[in-house]
Amino acid sequence: xxxxxxxxxxxxxxxxxxxxxxxxxxxxxxxxxxxxxxxxxxxxxxxxxxxxxxxxxxxxxxxxxxxxxxxxxxxxxxxxxxxxxxxxxxxxxxxxxxxxxxxxxxxxxxxxxxxxxxxxxxxxxxxxxxxxxxxxxxxxxxxxxxxxxxxxxxxxxxxxxxxxxxxxxxxxxxxxxxxxxxxxxxxxxxxxxxxxxxxxxxxxxxxxxxxxxxxxxxxxxxxxxxxxxxxxxxxxxxxxxxxxxxxxxxxxxxxxxxxxxxxxxxxxxxxxxxxxxxxxxxxxxxxxxxxxxxxxxxxxxxxxxxxxxxxxxxxxxxxxxxxxxxxxxxxxxxxxxxxxxxxxxxxxxxxxxxxxxxxxxxxxxxxxxxxxxxxxxxxxxxxxxxxxxxxxxxxxxxxxxxxxxxxxxxxxxxxxxxxxxxxxxxxxxx
Length: 430
Description:
By secondary structure, this protein is mainly alpha-helical.
């Protein structure tokens, strides 16, 4: 009996390590997609909202998590059970021109988003006194375009998973800002509804940057990439998913979306505790957002904020460019995939590179980083409901879903999300 506790502790430790190891092995497309949601566009949007309205929108992190998780899992299921991406499913369900219009709108929104992300990354490097902003816009843009074409999918996927750790910078910054936790609890537990055009616009921006159309295409596209990497090269060989595959992806998506929304919460909290609390309610650049942290939260918070901008940008830009490329390739039935050689998938890689080059050009034209970031979120907020209604039609189609349609609760949540985002967009204009 005396030795029992001694035997229990190693056993418990082994079981815990085994469970953690098993959990880590399930992480993949869901983690990357969730982490990519907190790109410099998202960071700037949440910073603007926190600076302007304080803690008023902290509650939105708890609203967006189930909506985001359900949308991503639905797209993952489409990829897993149909053996094809979201663009392909839309092409089979609707006239090709509808998929083409959605793909074009996605490319435009993503190019603006990439421009804003590159601007945020360039400003971050400039704030660290490492060189001029525009030089890094070009360096990061060209490097990511070349690496996306040259590197195999497995390498890209592994790098993106490690880059997700950059999100921890914003959680740490939130604690360094030393917020009034009692006030935070009050604003979370007793939220207020948005009122006035500015607050409704802020809600649309939050929804748009959190539940973004590019994440839908990327999540489904990554399921195809993963299966191709396993040797399943034809759509027929990829069709139909096992219960284990669905269960593992649920864990993966849940992890990625929880991480994304926790980070969103802490970015709003950090901006509210520093910028808003000290009278800075309007910011125009990511430089203002970062530098305002220094006198309040110290150099550590400033460095974490700026380094996080670079890390999240490196994660998000391939996702943005890749999702646009997936949308076009699947809609027009091109050969595609990050494992394909450039010569065999020229149109696919052409869209990938064009999205990034478009972002570089917009920066050379002198866009305002934060305005572009926020407007890209608003464009996504208006485009997302359209894609969600299309997604709704696909997910209930028994033929397309190979008899493995989404659960009714998922259908209800997707419908609710589409209606909520439509209502928020209408309220913003009215």
